[in-house]
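hiii, so i know i said id send this last week but things got crazy w the move. better late than never?? heres the sequnce for the chain we talked about at the cafe, plus the structure i predicted for it. fair warning i was half asleep when i ran it
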Amino acid sequence: MNFEHDGLHDALTRLAAPPFFYESLRREIAIANRSGADLTAIRLILESDTPLYDATIISFADLIANSFRFEDGKARLGQFEFAVLINGGEDLANQLNERLVARWAIEGTPGSAISYSFAKYKQGEEAITFINRLDDQVLIRRDF
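okay and structure toks below
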């Protein structure tokens, strides 16, 4: 399975590619620092004990695209790793994650699991520090 992108979109899922996501993150951090608005990043990992095929990855990406708001930044960062950047706090991030999980339970692939975590941006924090803190968060796993 190839992981390719054109710099803006992932070729398989059409979600934002990593370079575009990180540029959007820097822009949203600048806005959050000026306005004091809440900014939260969500990390989603699609897992399975059996091989995950392109169709499953596409279905999951479509579900992400349809479960979050239009203005939320949605990206595929790795083969089975996705991220969403939302304007809002951890309560909103948790609600949106629960909605995604509930829909995947109905529409998703049996035998798969979603692991997720989220972190709220701290004023003045560098983008790399924020993303590293997100990566260090304990993942919540939901099996189907």
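btw The first strand starts at residue 40 and ends at 48. thought thatd interest u
miss u guys!!
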